[in-house]
Amino acid sequence: MTASGLKISFDTPTNDLALFVTRLTNYSHTQSSEDFSEYEERIFSQIRSSNSLETLKDVETLRMYRDLYWSFGMDPTKLRVSSEALMRRVLRGENLWRISSLVDVVNLASAYHGVPIGLIDEGALVGNLRVRTARKDEVFVRIGGKGLVCKGREVVLSDDEKIVCFGYATHDSEMTRVTPQTATILLILYGAPGVSYSKLEQANSITLEMVDKWVDCQVTDSEYYRAMQ
């Protein structure tokens, strides 16, 4: 248990999993501004100047998340970690979706630093959070309402009742998505084996700077959680 009152446990055969979690309070659900769109284009240019679709497979951070997926019997060329999927959209010359100021900022930050990020409506959680292996035939409902039937080997984040993130930040849950009625949010950066604390801390810092600038909410101190060795 931490000072924030949030409890997260790890129950997988893989060590070195880690999370940076920040609670966002007094959230106001708004749309992104024109100024943000201009800022986003500058970040897109930076991503495109240092990466290509052909070389993305060699990006060290992304390789670590792919290795994590393989270790859970998940094919990362078919089920991509969210940060890589976002980077690929940018490198194909496509824009990111317009959902809300918060979601838009998080997608941009994830594409920029290559670390997957999830958003959870804290008020929709039941009990505590746990990183675990999915149960066979367990059903996960992703944002948009599509159900996925688990094979019983995937890494997931769940509360006491349901999966809230499938694939360790591939898909967030429809049940805990951020809505205009959401008041308090958990912003989660997911770390894989080999991704250093300093890398996660830097990515977390960059993300929160973006949130503080572009989103109408209160940003609290972050908590770092790591699986016990």
What is the CATH architecture annotation?
3-Layer(bba) Sandwich
Give the helix level as a range of percent. Answer: 25-40%
| Number of helices in the DSSP assignment | 5
Give the CATH topology. Phenylalanyl-tRNA Synthetase, Chain B, domain 3
CATH superfamily: Phenylalanyl-trna Synthetase, Chain B, domain 3
Description:
This protein is an alpha+beta fold and 229 residues long. The chain has one domain: Phenylalanyl-trna Synthetase, Chain B, domain 3 (Phenylalanyl-tRNA Synthetase, Chain B, domain 3, 3-Layer(bba) Sandwich), CATH 3.50.40. 31% of the residues lie in helices and 24% in strands. It has 5 helices and 11 strands; from the N terminus they run E-E-H-H-H-H-E-E-E-E-E-E-E-E-H-E. The strands form 3 sheets. It has a 5-stranded mixed beta sheet, with no helix packed on it. Strands 3-10-2-11 form a 4-stranded antiparallel beta sheet, with helices on one face. Strands 5-6 form a two-stranded antiparallel sheet.
Give structural attributes.
24% strand; alpha+beta; 229 residues; four-stranded antiparallel beta sheet
Short description:
With 229 residues, the chain is an alpha+beta fold.
Layout: helices, strands, pairs:
Layout: E1 8-11, E2 18-25, H1 34-50, H2 60-71, H3 82-91, H4 101-113, E3 117-121, E4 129-133, E5 139-141, E6 147-149, E7 155-158, E8 163-166, E9 171-172, E10 185-191, H5 197-214, E11 218-226
Parallel strand pairs: 1-4
Antiparallel strand pairs: 2-10, 2-11, 3-10, 4-7, 5-6, 7-8, 8-9
Helix pairs in contact: 3-4, 4-5
